[in-house]
Amino acid sequence: MPATPAWPPKSLPRLYVEMPLSAGAMVALDKAQANYLGNVMRLGEGDAALLFDGMNGEWRASVTEAGKKRMILRAEEQTSAQEQVPDVTLAFAPIKKGRIDWLVEKAVELGVARLQPVITDRTIVRDVKVERMRAHIIEAAEQCGRTALARLEAPMKLESFLAARDGSPLYFADETGGAAAGKSFTAPPATILIGPEGGFTDAERAAIRAAEGTVAISLGPRILRAETAALAALAAYMTEAGDWI
After folding, report:
1. Most Cβ neighbours (<10 Å): which of 28, 113, 156, 194?
2. What's phi and psi for 118, nearest 5 deg?
3. Where are the domains of the chain?
4. Cis peptide upstream of residue 189 (ω within 30 degrees of 0)
5. % helix, strand, coil for the chain, step of 5
6. Sign of the CA dihedral with 202 first, then 204, 207, and 212 last
7. Nearest CA to 85 among 167, 162, 190?
């Protein structure tokens, strides 16, 4: 590829790996990662990349072996310590493909620690593609410089989700009204609950409000799509009580 203002890239490529990282650790990439670094990014022996494992920060690594379908790197120095993540869970009703991908990607960028799909009476998408969602979590973390990987919980029905609550604050975005978002938040741990495209039923709303620790919040005077509401609430929380303070 000829040199252009956008090529070669100024920043090092960055990948999530499942092997624990430490000085001198040898990391064999999977085929997709090896293809990306070798054939897309044109890395060869001696070139550098950034790696993170979700537990031990970010590491600069050098390519020690490069082949068509194989690449091995050696971790050399830690470039970023492991981030301290506020214990914030975003619980949401799954929405349509494309829109849920965007929701997951942006929630990771905003710093969420945990994602919890919740199945409600009006949830349209009930076949949650967990592997696809996890792939978007990894991709977003790679791109936005996170060293912690947001945890993806197994989908739960609303009644099971409420039954499993431990009494920590549950900020319920209630379209019928509540305290202004940003004025009711307390320090983590916290969970933010966003409903489906059609909203919660009256029975669901009553059950949520009756759950221990529930605080109903309002996201303003305008009608928001489900993914917009989720990210607006998360951004408001991070600004008021998370790690944007």
Report:
1. 194
2. -125, 125
3. 14-80, 88-240
4. yes
5. 25, 25, 45
6. negative
7. 190
Which is the CATH superfamily of the domain at 88-240? SPOUT methyltransferase, trefoil knot domain (3.40.1280.10)
Identify the DSSP state of 54. Answer: S
Q: Could you say which architecture CATH assigns to the domain 14-80?
A: Beta Barrel (2.40)
Question: What letter represents residue 126's amino acid?
Answer: R
Q: Encoding tokens for residue 102? A: 């965007």
Dihedral pair phi/psi, residue 89, rounded to 5°: -105, 135
> Quick check: pTM over 0.90?
yes
**Whether 89 contacts 234, CB under 8 Å:** no
What is the Cα–Cα distance from 223 to 210, expressed in whole angstroms? 24
pLDDT 10s digits, 19-54: 999 999 999 999 999 999 999 999 999 999 999 999
Tokens 């490529």, residue?
Answer: 13
| Per-residue tokens: 225 | 């799509």
